[in-house]
Each structure stands twice: as C-alpha cells, then as structure tokens.
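Thread title: Can someone regenerate the structure for this chain?

I was given the following input by a collaborator and told the matching structure tokens would be attached. They weren't. Posting the sequence so someone can regenerate them.
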Amino acid sequence: MRLARASGCFSLSYLAYGVIFLFVTLGVSAVAGSPRTALIALVGFWAFSAFIMPKAAAEISKIVTPTAALGEFDARLQETRRTGFGGPTPRERLAEYRQSLLDQYQVADVADLPVYWVALSMQRLEEMDHEFFDHYYKGLDNSYLEQRRLQDALGVLAPTLPLSSISMGLSGTDLLHQRDFVNAAEETRRAMVDKVNAYLAEMAASFNANLREGATTDIESNDRVLVADEAVFQMVDPVRYSPPTLNTVLGEYRMAFLVLALWIIVALIFARIAVGRIGIQTR
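Best answer:
Regenerated them for you:
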C-alpha cells in the first residue's frame, strides 16, 4: 500500500513537472517572434532550471546557513569531550561518580566494589558522550535540513529544485530518511552497550581484583576470565527498523509541493495570456 501511494505521488510530481514545461513551451512559442527565438529561450530556461539554479541554490543555502568544515567540527567535538559544556569536566564527573559508588558501598577502593568498576566507568563515559555527540550532530543535521528547505523555497525560480527534493524524499534517499535510519541505529547501539556494560558490571565483579596494585593481567596466567556464551549475546534485541511513514515524508516536503503547484498556476496563466494575444492579433 505504501509503495503504491508513493509511486502515485512520484508519478504526479513528474507529471506536474512535465505540465509546467508544456505550458512554458506553449507560452514562449506564442510570444516569440520566430521559431529560432523560441528555441533559444526554451533551451536557456531548461539550462537555467536544470544546471545553473541547482548549483546556485546550494551555494546560497551554504551562505545563509553555514556549517563548519570537517576538521573544525571534529576539533570542537573533541574539545567538548575533554572540557565539557562549562561545568565540571568529564574526568571530574567520572571522579564524582566513582566517589559516590565508594560511599554507597562503604568501601575505600574500587577493587573492593561488588560491581565491576571498569564496566560502570565505560557506561558513564558513554552516557556523557551521548550529550556531546547529540549536541553537535543534531545541530549539524538541523543545519543541513535548513539548507534543503531554503533550496526548496528557491524553487520559485526553477521547478527542478522542488522536484528533486520530492523525488529523493519519495525514493528514500534524502536527508530525512538518512537521519531517521542513523538515529535508529544509534539508539540500537546505545541499548546494546548499556545491556553489555550492565551485564559486565554484575558478572565480572571479581575482575576488580585486577585493579589492585601488582595484580597480574596476563590472560594466560589469570584465572579471572569471563566466557560469554550464546545466552549472553541473545540479551541484545534483534534490530527492527521502520522507515518514516509516507505522511511524514509528504509533510516534510509540503513546501516543495506548493512550489510545484505555484509553477503550474503561473505557467498556465502565462500560456493563456500568450495564446490569447495571438487570437487578438489574428482578428
């Protein structure tokens, strides 16, 4: 059902695009002084719409909504991971968490904790990273989204722009689908890491002895080894993903559909006026 509806919307969009060029061609042919002039004008309109305007719109959107270069973006992210957002640094927050565990279990050293400190610390660092990665990557995604929406609005100058966005959206190759899939995959990864770390924290508590000064960590001579069997891996839920609904896609690209509709109206009015002038002149 979804495929049939999406295919119908896809076909209607390209039909609308064809109707726009039909009316523009009819109008230009009616007002042009000669077939050569009409041909030059129509080829120019096609080149502007298909080649010049998409490149120009992309550059304009980057100027209006700029994004950091990859090196700068990564440098900011890593610096935030090191220093935090202005409060206690991640290292200080981890130290506070460590002390809270020592106080909770009334022990003086992590080696005496009844839960595996390494697993707990990895999970706490993971959760702090969530804050930093979400902040930067969601901001980047929103910038890309604003750029694309501006390009759709600039479609009033070239019908190829809104058609391109609609085509990518309906075929599932746009930013909306990419973001949705990446977010779902990240949620799955976080849930998996959380379960594995929770399992290790409980089942590998004896490994805390490895944290004592002078303890051996050589695998061959260390009897503190945890073997993960099939049951351990089964605690991770199977990955199930559902793409955005068609209504979500249509809602995201309502501006593009409105721009295409506007082009049809304007092209129709232009064609009627141009053809009407021919009728007046032949009387």
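Residues 2-281 form one domain.
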